[in-house]
Protein backbone atom coordinates (compact mmCIF):
# COMPACT_ATOMS: atom_id res chain seq x y z
CA UNK A 1 0.00 0.00 0.00
CA UNK A 2 2.83 2.39 0.80
CA UNK A 3 4.42 1.63 -2.60
CA UNK A 4 1.14 2.42 -4.38
CA UNK A 5 0.76 5.62 -2.38
CA UNK A 6 4.28 6.59 -3.45
CA UNK A 7 3.21 6.02 -7.07
CA UNK A 8 0.17 8.24 -6.57
CA UNK A 9 2.35 11.00 -5.14
CA UNK A 10 4.64 10.70 -8.18
CA UNK A 11 1.65 11.27 -10.47
CA UNK A 12 0.62 14.20 -8.28
CA UNK A 13 4.07 15.67 -8.84
CA UNK A 14 3.70 15.27 -12.62
CA UNK A 15 0.35 17.07 -12.40
CA UNK A 16 1.80 19.94 -10.38
CA UNK A 17 4.75 20.11 -12.78
CA UNK A 18 2.59 20.46 -15.90
CA UNK A 19 0.26 23.01 -14.36
CA UNK A 20 3.24 24.96 -13.04
CA UNK A 21 4.93 25.08 -16.45
CA UNK A 22 2.06 26.94 -18.08
CA UNK A 23 -0.03 27.97 -15.07
CA UNK A 24 2.21 30.84 -13.95
CA UNK A 25 2.21 32.59 -17.33
CA UNK A 26 -1.48 31.97 -18.01
CA UNK A 27 -2.63 33.16 -14.58
CA UNK A 28 -0.62 36.39 -15.00
CA UNK A 29 -1.63 36.97 -18.64
CA UNK A 30 -5.16 38.37 -18.05
CA UNK A 31 -4.02 40.67 -15.22
CA UNK A 32 -1.23 42.02 -17.42
CA UNK A 33 -3.65 43.34 -20.07
CA UNK A 34 -7.22 43.43 -18.72
CA UNK A 35 -6.59 46.51 -16.47
CA UNK A 36 -5.90 48.46 -19.67
CA UNK A 37 -8.93 47.18 -21.62
CA UNK A 38 -12.69 47.68 -21.58
CA UNK A 39 -14.97 44.71 -20.86
CA UNK A 40 -15.75 44.34 -24.57
CA UNK A 41 -12.07 44.29 -25.46
CA UNK A 42 -11.42 42.02 -22.48
CA UNK A 43 -13.85 39.44 -23.83
CA UNK A 44 -12.00 39.51 -27.15
CA UNK A 45 -8.72 38.92 -25.29
CA UNK A 46 -10.19 35.98 -23.35
CA UNK A 47 -11.42 34.43 -26.62
CA UNK A 48 -7.88 34.67 -27.99
CA UNK A 49 -6.42 33.14 -24.84
CA UNK A 50 -8.87 30.23 -24.99
CA UNK A 51 -7.84 29.58 -28.60
CA UNK A 52 -4.30 29.19 -27.29
CA UNK A 53 -5.30 27.08 -24.28
CA UNK A 54 -7.36 24.38 -25.99
CA UNK A 55 -4.65 23.12 -28.39
CA UNK A 56 -2.11 23.44 -25.56
CA UNK A 57 -4.25 21.14 -23.40
CA UNK A 58 -4.50 18.60 -26.22
CA UNK A 59 -0.74 18.65 -26.81
CA UNK A 60 0.10 18.12 -23.13
CA UNK A 61 -2.48 15.34 -22.83
CA UNK A 62 -0.97 13.52 -25.82
CA UNK A 63 2.55 14.00 -24.44
CA UNK A 64 1.58 12.34 -21.16
CA UNK A 65 -0.21 9.47 -22.94
CA UNK A 66 2.58 8.76 -25.42
CA UNK A 67 5.49 9.64 -23.15
CA UNK A 68 4.53 7.53 -20.13
CA UNK A 69 7.43 5.03 -20.69
CA UNK A 70 9.92 7.90 -20.29
CA UNK A 71 8.15 9.10 -17.13
CA UNK A 72 8.22 5.57 -15.70
CA UNK A 73 11.95 5.45 -16.36
CA UNK A 74 12.51 8.90 -14.82
CA UNK A 75 10.84 7.86 -11.55
CA UNK A 76 12.24 4.33 -11.69
CA UNK A 77 8.66 3.03 -11.36
CA UNK A 78 7.22 0.83 -14.19
CA UNK A 79 3.83 0.54 -12.44
CA UNK A 80 2.96 4.11 -13.52
CA UNK A 81 2.31 3.12 -17.15
CA UNK A 82 -1.46 2.46 -17.08
CA UNK A 83 -2.37 5.13 -14.47
CA UNK A 84 -0.56 7.76 -16.56
CA UNK A 85 -2.70 6.94 -19.61
CA UNK A 86 -5.83 7.74 -17.61
CA UNK A 87 -4.13 10.74 -16.03
CA UNK A 88 -3.61 12.30 -19.50
CA UNK A 89 -7.35 13.14 -19.48
CA UNK A 90 -6.92 14.99 -16.19
CA UNK A 91 -4.33 17.23 -17.84
CA UNK A 92 -6.58 17.81 -20.86
CA UNK A 93 -9.51 18.94 -18.69
CA UNK A 94 -7.47 21.06 -16.26
CA UNK A 95 -5.41 23.37 -18.51
CA UNK A 96 -8.31 25.41 -20.01
CA UNK A 97 -9.25 26.74 -16.53
CA UNK A 98 -5.88 28.29 -15.65
CA UNK A 99 -6.81 31.91 -16.45
CA UNK A 100 -9.61 32.16 -13.86
CA UNK A 101 -7.44 33.56 -11.05
CA UNK A 102 -5.99 36.35 -13.21
CA UNK A 103 -9.42 37.41 -14.49
CA UNK A 104 -11.02 37.68 -11.06
CA UNK A 105 -7.96 39.32 -9.48
CA UNK A 106 -8.15 42.05 -12.14
CA UNK A 107 -11.83 42.74 -11.52
CA UNK A 108 -11.39 42.49 -7.73
CA UNK A 109 -13.74 39.52 -7.40
CA UNK A 110 -11.32 37.04 -5.90
CA UNK A 111 -14.06 35.74 -3.58
CA UNK A 112 -15.69 34.08 -6.61
CA UNK A 113 -12.41 32.45 -7.51
CA UNK A 114 -12.14 31.33 -3.88
CA UNK A 115 -15.58 29.69 -4.12
CA UNK A 116 -14.44 27.87 -7.27
CA UNK A 117 -11.27 26.62 -5.55
CA UNK A 118 -13.15 25.43 -2.45
CA UNK A 119 -15.82 23.72 -4.58
CA UNK A 120 -13.16 22.00 -6.66
CA UNK A 121 -11.27 20.82 -3.55
CA UNK A 122 -14.43 19.43 -1.94
CA UNK A 123 -15.28 17.59 -5.15
CA UNK A 124 -11.72 16.27 -5.26
CA UNK A 125 -12.10 14.96 -1.71
CA UNK A 126 -15.42 13.27 -2.49
CA UNK A 127 -14.25 11.63 -5.72
CA UNK A 128 -10.78 10.54 -4.56
CA UNK A 129 -10.61 10.16 -0.79
CA UNK A 130 -13.97 8.46 -0.22
CA UNK A 131 -13.32 5.68 -2.81
CA UNK A 132 -10.08 4.89 -0.95
CA UNK A 133 -11.77 4.69 2.44
CA UNK A 134 -14.96 2.88 1.39
CA UNK A 135 -13.92 0.75 -1.60
CA UNK A 136 -10.14 0.52 -1.09
CA UNK A 137 -9.76 1.67 -4.71
CA UNK A 138 -6.51 0.93 -6.51
CA UNK A 139 -4.43 3.51 -8.40
CA UNK A 140 -6.14 2.99 -11.78
CA UNK A 141 -9.59 3.58 -10.26
CA UNK A 142 -8.32 6.67 -8.46
CA UNK A 143 -7.11 8.10 -11.78
CA UNK A 144 -10.53 7.46 -13.29
CA UNK A 145 -12.26 9.31 -10.43
CA UNK A 146 -9.72 12.13 -10.80
CA UNK A 147 -10.57 12.44 -14.51
CA UNK A 148 -14.27 12.74 -13.59
CA UNK A 149 -13.38 15.46 -11.08
CA UNK A 150 -11.31 17.35 -13.67
CA UNK A 151 -14.13 17.22 -16.22
CA UNK A 152 -16.63 18.56 -13.65
CA UNK A 153 -14.25 21.38 -12.67
CA UNK A 154 -13.78 22.23 -16.36
CA UNK A 155 -17.52 22.78 -16.86
CA UNK A 156 -17.71 25.11 -13.84
CA UNK A 157 -14.43 26.79 -14.81
CA UNK A 158 -15.53 27.69 -18.36
CA UNK A 159 -18.68 29.26 -16.93
CA UNK A 160 -16.63 31.38 -14.50
CA UNK A 161 -14.17 32.47 -17.20
CA UNK A 162 -16.96 34.08 -19.22
CA UNK A 163 -19.16 35.18 -16.29
CA UNK A 164 -17.72 38.76 -16.12
CA UNK A 165 -18.41 39.16 -19.85
CA UNK A 166 -21.99 37.86 -20.06
CA UNK A 167 -24.22 39.81 -22.48
CA UNK A 168 -21.19 41.82 -23.64
CA UNK A 169 -20.25 41.89 -27.31
CA UNK A 170 -16.52 41.50 -27.92
CA UNK A 171 -14.63 44.36 -29.57
CA UNK A 172 -11.27 43.82 -31.20
CA UNK A 173 -8.40 44.73 -28.88
CA UNK A 174 -4.86 45.70 -29.81
CA UNK A 175 -3.45 42.67 -27.99
CA UNK A 176 -2.39 40.33 -30.78
CA UNK A 177 -1.40 36.67 -30.62
CA UNK A 178 2.18 37.89 -31.03
CA UNK A 179 1.79 40.00 -27.86
CA UNK A 180 0.29 37.03 -26.03
CA UNK A 181 3.16 34.70 -26.92
CA UNK A 182 5.73 37.42 -26.25
CA UNK A 183 4.40 37.55 -22.69
CA UNK A 184 3.91 33.79 -22.29
CA UNK A 185 7.24 32.46 -23.55
CA UNK A 186 9.60 34.11 -20.99
CA UNK A 187 7.29 33.23 -18.08
CA UNK A 188 6.89 29.68 -19.37
CA UNK A 189 10.68 29.43 -19.40
CA UNK A 190 10.58 30.74 -15.83
CA UNK A 191 8.21 27.92 -14.88
CA UNK A 192 10.32 25.31 -16.66
CA UNK A 193 13.38 26.45 -14.73
CA UNK A 194 11.41 26.18 -11.49
CA UNK A 195 10.37 22.65 -12.40
CA UNK A 196 13.93 21.67 -13.32
CA UNK A 197 14.99 22.98 -9.93
CA UNK A 198 12.44 20.97 -7.91
CA UNK A 199 12.87 17.92 -10.16
CA UNK A 200 16.33 17.38 -8.75
CA UNK A 201 14.82 16.49 -5.37
CA UNK A 202 12.30 14.14 -6.99
CA UNK A 203 14.94 12.48 -9.17
CA UNK A 204 17.57 11.85 -6.52
CA UNK A 205 15.09 10.71 -3.85
CA UNK A 206 13.30 8.35 -6.27
CA UNK A 207 16.38 6.83 -7.88
CA UNK A 208 18.77 6.74 -4.92
CA UNK A 209 16.40 5.79 -2.09
CA UNK A 210 13.30 4.06 -3.58
CA UNK A 211 9.52 4.46 -3.47
CA UNK A 212 9.05 4.20 0.31
CA UNK A 213 11.52 7.00 1.01
CA UNK A 214 9.91 8.96 -1.81
CA UNK A 215 6.53 8.56 -0.06
CA UNK A 216 8.06 9.99 3.13
CA UNK A 217 9.67 12.82 1.17
CA UNK A 218 6.47 13.54 -0.75
CA UNK A 219 4.40 13.81 2.43
CA UNK A 220 7.09 15.99 3.95
CA UNK A 221 6.90 18.25 0.90
CA UNK A 222 3.28 19.20 1.51
CA UNK A 223 2.63 22.87 2.03
CA UNK A 224 0.35 24.36 4.65
CA UNK A 225 -2.76 25.15 2.53
CA UNK A 226 -3.52 28.49 4.18
CA UNK A 227 -0.05 29.81 3.37
CA UNK A 228 -0.17 28.91 -0.31
CA UNK A 229 -3.60 30.47 -0.73
CA UNK A 230 -2.53 33.66 1.07
CA UNK A 231 0.72 34.14 -0.87
CA UNK A 232 -0.99 33.29 -4.16
CA UNK A 233 -3.81 35.75 -3.50
CA UNK A 234 -1.38 38.54 -2.62
CA UNK A 235 0.61 37.85 -5.79
CA UNK A 236 -2.52 37.84 -7.96
CA UNK A 237 -3.75 41.16 -6.55
CA UNK A 238 -0.37 42.94 -6.61
CA UNK A 239 0.44 42.16 -10.26
CA UNK A 240 -2.23 44.38 -11.89
CA UNK A 241 -1.51 47.05 -9.25
CA UNK A 242 2.20 47.14 -10.14
CA UNK A 243 1.44 47.16 -13.87
CA UNK A 244 -0.55 50.38 -13.41
CA UNK A 245 1.70 52.09 -10.87
CA UNK A 246 5.08 51.47 -12.53
CA UNK A 247 4.01 53.47 -15.56
CA UNK A 248 4.25 56.50 -13.27
CA UNK A 249 7.79 57.18 -11.98
CA UNK A 250 6.37 59.22 -9.08
CA UNK A 251 4.63 56.12 -7.71
CA UNK A 252 7.80 54.27 -6.68
CA UNK A 253 7.53 55.41 -3.04
CA UNK A 254 3.93 54.22 -2.96
CA UNK A 255 4.99 50.89 -4.48
CA UNK A 256 7.70 50.49 -1.83
CA UNK A 257 5.16 51.10 0.94
CA UNK A 258 2.78 48.59 -0.64
CA UNK A 259 5.47 45.90 -0.84
CA UNK A 260 6.54 46.58 2.78
CA UNK A 261 2.92 46.48 3.96
CA UNK A 262 2.08 43.25 2.10
CA UNK A 263 5.19 41.50 3.47
CA UNK A 264 4.41 42.67 7.02
CA UNK A 265 0.83 41.39 6.79
CA UNK A 266 2.04 38.06 5.41
CA UNK A 267 4.59 37.73 8.22
CA UNK A 268 1.93 38.49 10.85
CA UNK A 269 -0.44 35.82 9.52
CA UNK A 270 2.00 33.19 8.30
CA UNK A 271 4.99 33.07 10.66
CA UNK A 272 3.10 31.98 13.81
CA UNK A 273 1.49 29.11 11.89
CA UNK A 274 4.70 27.97 10.18
CA UNK A 275 6.66 27.95 13.43
CA UNK A 276 3.93 26.11 15.36
CA UNK A 277 3.59 23.44 12.66
CA UNK A 278 7.39 23.13 12.51
CA UNK A 279 7.60 22.35 16.24
CA UNK A 280 4.54 20.05 16.14
CA UNK A 281 5.30 18.38 12.81
CA UNK A 282 5.99 14.89 14.16
CA UNK A 283 2.66 14.79 16.01
CA UNK A 284 0.81 16.28 13.04
CA UNK A 285 2.22 13.71 10.60
CA UNK A 286 1.42 10.92 13.05
CA UNK A 287 -2.20 12.17 13.22
CA UNK A 288 -2.56 12.62 9.44
CA UNK A 289 -0.67 9.62 8.07
CA UNK A 290 0.06 7.26 10.95
CA UNK A 291 3.26 6.18 12.67
CA UNK A 292 4.58 4.69 9.42
CA UNK A 293 5.08 8.19 8.00
CA UNK A 294 6.54 10.05 10.99
CA UNK A 295 9.89 10.29 9.15
CA UNK A 296 8.10 12.69 6.80
CA UNK A 297 8.29 15.26 9.60
CA UNK A 298 12.08 15.48 9.16
CA UNK A 299 11.70 16.32 5.47
CA UNK A 300 8.96 18.79 6.37
CA UNK A 301 11.11 20.61 8.92
CA UNK A 302 13.79 21.23 6.31
CA UNK A 303 11.47 22.15 3.44
CA UNK A 304 9.12 24.36 5.48
CA UNK A 305 11.95 26.72 6.45
CA UNK A 306 11.64 28.12 2.93
CA UNK A 307 8.09 29.21 3.78
CA UNK A 308 9.60 31.86 6.04
CA UNK A 309 11.15 33.40 2.92
CA UNK A 310 8.20 32.82 0.55
CA UNK A 311 6.34 35.76 2.14
CA UNK A 312 8.57 38.00 0.01
CA UNK A 313 6.21 38.12 -2.97
CA UNK A 314 8.77 39.25 -5.54
CA UNK A 315 7.48 37.76 -8.82
CA UNK A 316 4.71 40.34 -9.52
CA UNK A 317 7.14 43.23 -9.15
CA UNK A 318 9.80 41.38 -11.20
CA UNK A 319 7.27 40.95 -14.04
CA UNK A 320 6.08 44.55 -13.79
CA UNK A 321 9.70 45.79 -13.80
CA UNK A 322 10.30 43.69 -16.94
CA UNK A 323 13.16 41.87 -15.23
CA UNK A 324 12.02 38.35 -16.15
CA UNK A 325 15.30 37.86 -18.07
CA UNK A 326 17.32 38.48 -14.89
CA UNK A 327 14.94 36.19 -12.98
CA UNK A 328 15.56 33.42 -15.52
CA UNK A 329 19.35 33.88 -15.49
CA UNK A 330 19.40 33.56 -11.69
CA UNK A 331 17.28 30.41 -11.88
CA UNK A 332 19.49 28.86 -14.58
CA UNK A 333 22.43 29.26 -12.20
CA UNK A 334 20.27 27.84 -9.39
CA UNK A 335 19.29 24.77 -11.43
CA UNK A 336 22.90 24.00 -12.37
CA UNK A 337 24.03 24.50 -8.78
CA UNK A 338 21.36 22.33 -7.13
CA UNK A 339 21.70 19.38 -9.54
CA UNK A 340 25.50 19.37 -9.38
CA UNK A 341 25.66 19.89 -5.60
CA UNK A 342 23.17 17.13 -4.80
CA UNK A 343 24.95 14.66 -7.10
CA UNK A 344 28.30 15.50 -5.53
CA UNK A 345 27.10 15.25 -1.91
CA UNK A 346 25.23 11.97 -2.49
CA UNK A 347 28.52 10.37 -3.48
CA UNK A 348 29.68 10.88 0.11
CA UNK A 349 26.51 10.23 2.16
CA UNK A 350 23.56 7.83 2.27
CA UNK A 351 21.19 10.24 4.00
CA UNK A 352 18.21 11.40 1.90
CA UNK A 353 17.81 14.49 4.08
CA UNK A 354 20.79 16.26 2.51
CA UNK A 355 18.80 16.57 -0.74
CA UNK A 356 16.20 19.10 0.56
CA UNK A 357 18.88 20.87 2.64
CA UNK A 358 20.87 21.70 -0.50
CA UNK A 359 17.70 22.84 -2.29
CA UNK A 360 16.81 25.09 0.63
CA UNK A 361 20.21 26.82 0.63
CA UNK A 362 20.10 27.47 -3.11
CA UNK A 363 16.50 28.78 -2.94
CA UNK A 364 17.41 31.25 -0.21
CA UNK A 365 20.37 32.45 -2.28
CA UNK A 366 18.06 33.05 -5.25
CA UNK A 367 15.64 35.11 -3.13
CA UNK A 368 18.51 37.25 -1.83
CA UNK A 369 19.62 38.03 -5.40
CA UNK A 370 16.07 38.89 -6.50
CA UNK A 371 15.49 41.20 -3.54
CA UNK A 372 18.79 42.93 -4.32
CA UNK A 373 17.63 43.45 -7.93
CA UNK A 374 14.29 44.93 -6.84
CA UNK A 375 16.03 47.27 -4.39
CA UNK A 376 18.45 48.49 -7.06
CA UNK A 377 15.66 49.08 -9.58
CA UNK A 378 13.36 50.88 -7.15
CA UNK A 379 16.34 52.68 -5.60
CA UNK A 380 15.18 52.11 -2.05
CA UNK A 381 16.76 51.03 1.22
CA UNK A 382 16.47 47.33 2.17
CA UNK A 383 14.79 48.09 5.49
CA UNK A 384 12.17 50.27 3.79
CA UNK A 385 11.25 47.37 1.53
CA UNK A 386 11.58 44.43 3.93
CA UNK A 387 10.37 44.59 7.59
CA UNK A 388 13.33 42.55 8.83
CA UNK A 389 13.18 43.71 12.46
CA UNK A 390 9.48 42.80 12.74
CA UNK A 391 10.16 39.38 11.24
CA UNK A 392 13.02 38.54 13.61
CA UNK A 393 11.11 39.83 16.64
CA UNK A 394 8.08 37.69 15.81
CA UNK A 395 10.21 34.58 15.22
CA UNK A 396 11.93 34.99 18.60
CA UNK A 397 8.57 35.48 20.35
CA UNK A 398 7.03 32.38 18.74
CA UNK A 399 10.03 30.15 19.43
CA UNK A 400 10.26 31.31 23.06
CA UNK A 401 6.66 30.25 23.68
CA UNK A 402 6.96 26.91 21.88
CA UNK A 403 10.22 25.63 23.42
CA UNK A 404 8.65 24.81 26.85
CA UNK A 405 5.69 23.15 25.11
CA UNK A 406 8.08 21.14 22.94
CA UNK A 407 10.10 20.01 25.98
CA UNK A 408 6.91 18.95 27.77
CA UNK A 409 5.74 16.99 24.71
CA UNK A 410 8.99 15.02 24.53
CA UNK A 411 8.46 13.91 28.13
CA UNK A 412 5.09 12.33 27.29
CA UNK A 413 4.08 9.11 25.52
CA UNK A 414 0.71 9.70 23.85
CA UNK A 415 -1.84 7.68 21.88
CA UNK A 416 -3.45 9.02 18.70
CA UNK A 417 -6.43 10.71 20.35
CA UNK A 418 -4.17 12.15 23.05
CA UNK A 419 -1.91 13.53 20.34
CA UNK A 420 -4.85 15.31 18.72
CA UNK A 421 -5.92 16.88 22.01
CA UNK A 422 -2.35 17.90 22.86
CA UNK A 423 -1.83 19.63 19.48
CA UNK A 424 -5.14 21.52 19.76
CA UNK A 425 -4.54 22.65 23.35
CA UNK A 426 -0.93 23.57 22.53
CA UNK A 427 -2.04 25.79 19.65
CA UNK A 428 -4.66 27.56 21.78
CA UNK A 429 -2.16 28.22 24.59
CA UNK A 430 0.57 29.26 22.14
CA UNK A 431 -1.57 31.69 20.15
CA UNK A 432 -3.19 33.14 23.29
CA UNK A 433 0.19 33.88 24.89
CA UNK A 434 1.50 35.37 21.63
CA UNK A 435 -1.61 37.52 21.16
CA UNK A 436 -1.77 38.91 24.69
CA UNK A 437 1.95 39.38 25.36
CA UNK A 438 3.21 40.69 22.00
CA UNK A 439 1.63 44.12 21.53
CA UNK A 440 2.92 44.78 18.00
CA UNK A 441 1.63 41.39 16.80
CA UNK A 442 -1.72 41.98 18.51
CA UNK A 443 -2.19 45.40 16.88
CA UNK A 444 -1.23 44.14 13.39
CA UNK A 445 -3.39 41.03 13.71
CA UNK A 446 -6.46 43.03 14.80
CA UNK A 447 -5.95 45.55 11.97
CA UNK A 448 -5.71 42.77 9.38
CA UNK A 449 -8.81 41.08 10.81
CA UNK A 450 -10.73 44.37 10.58
CA UNK A 451 -9.68 44.81 6.96
CA UNK A 452 -10.91 41.33 6.06
CA UNK A 453 -14.25 41.73 7.83
CA UNK A 454 -14.90 45.18 6.38
CA UNK A 455 -14.04 44.19 2.80
TrEMBL record:
<feature type="transmembrane region" description="Helical">
    <location>
        <begin position="385"/>
        <end position="408"/>
    </location>
</feature>
<keyword id="KW-1133">Transmembrane helix</keyword>
<dbReference type="InterPro" id="IPR050833">
    <property type="entry name" value="Poly_Biosynth_Transport"/>
</dbReference>
<feature type="transmembrane region" description="Helical">
    <location>
        <begin position="420"/>
        <end position="437"/>
    </location>
</feature>
<feature type="transmembrane region" description="Helical">
    <location>
        <begin position="12"/>
        <end position="29"/>
    </location>
</feature>
<dbReference type="Pfam" id="PF13440">
    <property type="entry name" value="Polysacc_synt_3"/>
</dbReference>
<feature type="transmembrane region" description="Helical">
    <location>
        <begin position="352"/>
        <end position="373"/>
    </location>
</feature>
<feature type="transmembrane region" description="Helical">
    <location>
        <begin position="299"/>
        <end position="319"/>
    </location>
</feature>
<feature type="transmembrane region" description="Helical">
    <location>
        <begin position="114"/>
        <end position="137"/>
    </location>
</feature>
<protein>
    <recommendedName>
        <fullName>Polysaccharide biosynthesis protein C-terminal domain-containing protein</fullName>
    </recommendedName>
</protein>
<feature type="transmembrane region" description="Helical">
    <location>
        <begin position="143"/>
        <end position="162"/>
    </location>
</feature>
<feature type="transmembrane region" description="Helical">
    <location>
        <begin position="326"/>
        <end position="346"/>
    </location>
</feature>
<feature type="transmembrane region" description="Helical">
    <location>
        <begin position="86"/>
        <end position="107"/>
    </location>
</feature>
<keyword id="KW-1003">Cell membrane</keyword>
<keyword id="KW-0472">Membrane</keyword>
<feature type="transmembrane region" description="Helical">
    <location>
        <begin position="263"/>
        <end position="279"/>
    </location>
</feature>
<feature type="transmembrane region" description="Helical">
    <location>
        <begin position="224"/>
        <end position="243"/>
    </location>
</feature>
<keyword id="KW-0812">Transmembrane</keyword>
<feature type="transmembrane region" description="Helical">
    <location>
        <begin position="183"/>
        <end position="204"/>
    </location>
</feature>
<dbReference type="GO" id="GO:0005886">
    <property type="term" value="C:plasma membrane"/>
</dbReference>
<feature type="transmembrane region" description="Helical">
    <location>
        <begin position="49"/>
        <end position="66"/>
    </location>
</feature>
